[in-house]
Amino acid sequence: MAKQIKITLVRSVAGTLPVQRKTVKVLGLGKINSYVVRDDNPVNRGMVRTVEHLVKVEEI
């Protein structure tokens, strides 16, 4: 089984760049404190790196 990460949105996307807003939406996050569980792979890690100041990441 692949490792997984829990991604939680902890800051608002208001005032961020459009590409960062789209990344948050593609990750499946909407409101503050919403979270998703994703596989830990380079694609998801790259998206998290784009919005690292808005999210909290935990390994499961």
Task: Explain what this protein looks like in three dimensions.
It is built from 2 helices and 3 strands; from the N terminus they run βαβαβ. By secondary structure, the chain is an alpha+beta fold.
Beta-strand level of the residues, as a percent range? 25-35%
Helix/strand/pairing class, anyone?
alpha+beta
- Portion in helices: 25-40%
Strand order of the largest sheet: 2-1-3
Order of helices and strands: EHEHE
**Got a strand count?**
3
What is the terminal separation in angstroms?
Answer: 12 Å
Shape: globular
- Radius of gyration of CA atoms, rounded to a whole number: 11 Å
Low-confidence stretches: none
How many H/I helices? Answer: 2
How do the strands and helices of this protein lay out in sequence?
Elements: E1 4-9, H1 18-27, E2 35-39, H2 42-50, E3 55-59
Antiparallel strand pairs: 1-2, 1-3
